[in-house]
Each structure stands twice: as C-alpha cells, then as structure tokens.
Amino acid sequence: MPKTVKDAKLDNPTARKALAIGKRPHWKTLVPERLHLGYRRKSRDTAGVWLVRRYVGRERYRVSLLGTAHETADETSKAPGTFTFEEAQKLALLHRNVVEGRPKTANLTVAEAIEDYIRYLKAEKKSGKDAEGRANALILPALGKYKVSELTKRQIEKWRDDLAKKGRLLRSEKGKEQKTAKAPETENEIRARKATVNRTLTTLKAALNRAYAENDEIAEKPDAWRTVKPFGKVDAARPDFLSVAEAQRLINAADRASGFRDLVHGALLTGCRYGELCALKVRDFAGGKIMIHTSKSGKPRTVRLTEEGVEFFAALVAGRTGDEPMFRREGSEVWRESSQGRPMRETCKAAKIVPAVGFHQLRHTWASLAVMNGTPLMVVAMNLGHRDTTMVERHYAHLTSNFIDEAIMAGAPRYGAVEVSNVTAIHK
Questions:
Q1: % of the chain surpassing 90 pLDDT
Q2: I need a labelling partner for 112 at 20 to 30 A (CA). Which of 100, 253, 256, 389 fits?
C-alpha cells in the first residue's frame, strides 16, 4: 500500500487558504495514474472538501467526495466528521480498498455503502440526519451485513414487507431494549406505516445507486434493488391541520412564562419546522423576513411574513443582541430536539384540541390555511422550503378546489357567443 505523501500546498490549513477558490480541485497523486487526492473550496465562507479520483479503466476516471476538510491549525478543536490531509489520504486508500493501484470493491457491504452515502450527504450539507436515523434503525439491523453484490430482489422485498407489518419505533432509554408500538391495525395506521417504509426504501436505493455509480464492479445486476417497487397509494392528503379558531385557542393556551407560546405563535406564522425555529438567531429577522440558514434539505431560504408576522417578530427581537437565540426558553435554557413534546400535549389539552396534534402539524396548518386562502402553490412551496410544488400538490392541492372555482368564474374568458334558446332545462 502506498505510503502517506507530503505536499506543501495541502499539508496544513494555512497553506490551503492560499489556494485558488473555485470548482476545480487541487490534485495530489497517491498512486501514479491510478489514484489522486483532491482538495476544493468553493467560497471563502465555506470549508473545503476532500475528493478522490481513481482510474476505472478505458481511460476513464471517477471522482468521489470523501468528506469535509479540517480547516484550523489547532488539532484539539477538530470537529467530528472532518479530516486532515493525512486522514484524507488514508480514507482515499482504505475506503476505496485500493491495493497496488487496483480497486477491489466486490466485498462492499450494505453498511459500507450507506456509511459512504451519509458522509456524502453531510459533506454536501444535505439532509444526512434523517437518512442516518432511518438507516441505523430500519436498514442496517436487517441488511447491513450483506454484500451489495449478493443482494437479491426477493431479499429486499421481504425486508420491505416485514418492516410494514411491524409497529413504529418508540423512544427508548439509551442502552435499554428498543421499544416498539403495536403492529398497525387500522387502515390509516397501515397506510402511514407503509409511507414510512417507502421513505426508508428510498434511502436504501439512493445509497446503493451511489455505490453502484462509483463502483460499477460491485454488482452485475443493480436491478436487484432498482426494480423493487414502493407501496402504492399511501401518500394521503394531510387532514391534520387546525382551523383559525383552534389555532387561536392553542396560542392563548400555551404557557407564556416558559417561552412556549412564542414558539407556537412563530410556527403558525411561518410554517417553519421546529428545528428551524430553534436554530434561529435574533439577527435572522431582517427586512420583514426570516432567514433560515440550514433547512432539512440543507439549503438556505427566506420566509416571507404577513404584517402580523412582521409585528410579532419585531416585538420578539426588540432590544436584543443579534447572536441571541430567537426563541428563549425559561431559565436561560435552549429548546432542544424533544423539548416540545410534553408542552405541546399539555397545550392541546388546555385548548381542547381533540384529537391532539403534534408540533409539526403547526407547519401543516400554515400551509393548509394559506392554500385555502388562495395563495399560489409555488409561493407556499417556496416558503416551506420545497424546490417545487410536488409535495405541496400531493398534500394540499385538494384544498384549492373552491379557490379554483372562484378563480375560473372571475378570470376565465367569455365570448358572448352562446345563442339564446327557448328550451329550458327542467331540474328535479
């Protein structure tokens, strides 16, 4: 195996800062004509990333992402998931299983393929957290040990069907046995479970497709997973949103002293996810808009507000410094990943919301009421952070029927060419 190489331009973060910024990587040969390590930084405000370029035959090279570069001279402050120059070399050599210049990936397992896929998502600032959670809980226990080259369609279909019959995972104490809910029984429970399995199957396929695209020698027939179909007709329109009156009751019932009332009100005014609200700083409200720096998709977006929303956030940030959390919790605490569960249940009970809704339904409430009031689907999608109207049409388009009828009556063309007839229709 090649030894670790040195390079004055890539060895340390200080030297790398002097390199040109842009899309073209700076390459260092690890194995002559076979394997190269690359470094690229697209802008001065972002960390660089390590790339590997390997020869795949027929005068072709394949470039893959390795991970984020460690960009400070202090090794003690090294963030998890970042790599030094030496670590990146080892990752390029060992992760790609390159021995004497020849790639050997026939033994790649599903667990290794998913690990590479999660690393790719995180390095590209995409949604790696959701995929990682699904993989750890639902994919790896059953399929992780298998070689990608040996997977069969029947094997994956059995995993899919078995997963659909099981109850959803429940919150369990660390180190204790994983708890699960009872198996789905009602039509809606079965539909919801199958929808979860479909999203998990998408994660599995994405990881395997990436592995195959980069290591086309791992499997002769990728149809083993590509021909496995998701469950059909499971994405029902969302009925779980509040009316304006219910939303008002919920706001009034939420505890003001703990800061939960502000959090509820903010969600109903923006349609933002709980995690997005918790991450907001005071400075993120400017010009009558809210700036979301990191969303579920990994892309920033601007949330437009109504005049009520502008008034609310202006009062919320008045007299505060820009780096303070936008939404404060009682006792200088911050709102954590699961801090909203209990107060949301208590607030629904006090507001007489039956059945109770979760915090995420506040996002659906904003979207549903906006659509029902005639807001164009593309505008709703942009505020929610969707790249197009696909998800909005799937879940909220059924709410637009009255709006469409009114719009046609108001704006569709008339030609005045209908001839008057003496025949009158008789209606029962």
A1: 35
A2: 100
Burial per residue of 211-248, b for 16 or more beta-carbon CB atoms within 10 angstroms, e otherwise? bbebbeebbeebebbeebebbeebeeebeebbeeebbe
| pLDDT tens per residue, range 277-298 | 999 999 999 988 999 987 776 6
Largest pairwise CA distance in the chain = 96
HSE of 196 in the Cβ direction (CA atoms, 13 Å)? 21
- The confidence band for 215, taking pLDDT boundaries of 50, 70 and 90, is low
Residue corresponding to tokens 């120059």: 85
Angstrom distances, CA of residue 374 to CA of 132, 291, 404: 37, 24, 8
Rounded to an integer, the average pLDDT of 216-241 is 73
Quick one: how many helices (H) and strands (E) in the chain?
Answer: 17, 10
Tokens of 76: 């003690």
Q: Which helix (H) or strand (E) holds 103?
A: strand 102-103
- The answer to whether 160 touches 127, Cβ cutoff 8 Å, is no
Torsions phi, psi for 259 (to 5 deg): 90, 0
Residue 427 makes CB contacts below 8 A (sequence gap 6+) with none
Cα–Cα distance measured from residue 301 to residue 280, given in angstroms and rounded to the nearest whole number: 12
Detail the DSSP E strand segments found in 197-348: 285-286, 289-292, 301-304
338-341 contacts at long range (C-beta below 8 A, 24 or more positions apart): 338/171, 340/260, 340/263, 340/274
Please give the C-alpha separations between residue 184 and each of 78, 164, 170, 354, in angstroms, as whole numbers: 45, 8, 14, 21
Measure the CA angle with vertex 407, ends 401 and 408; round to 5°.
90
Q: Are 252 and 296 in contact (CB under 8 A)?
A: no
* φ, ψ dihedrals at 390, nearest 5°: -55, -55
CA distance 228 to 230: 7
Shortest CA distance to 308 belongs to which of 258, 349, 369?
369
CA distance 96 to 289: 45
Q: Contacts for 96-104 with beta carbons within 8 Å, 24 or more apart?
A: 96/35, 96/52, 96/54, 96/64, 98/1, 98/30, 98/31, 98/34, 98/35, 98/54, 99/1, 100/1, 100/31, 101/31, 101/32, 101/33, 101/34, 101/35, 101/55, 102/34, 103/54, 103/56, 103/215, 103/217
The whole model's pTM is what? 0.57
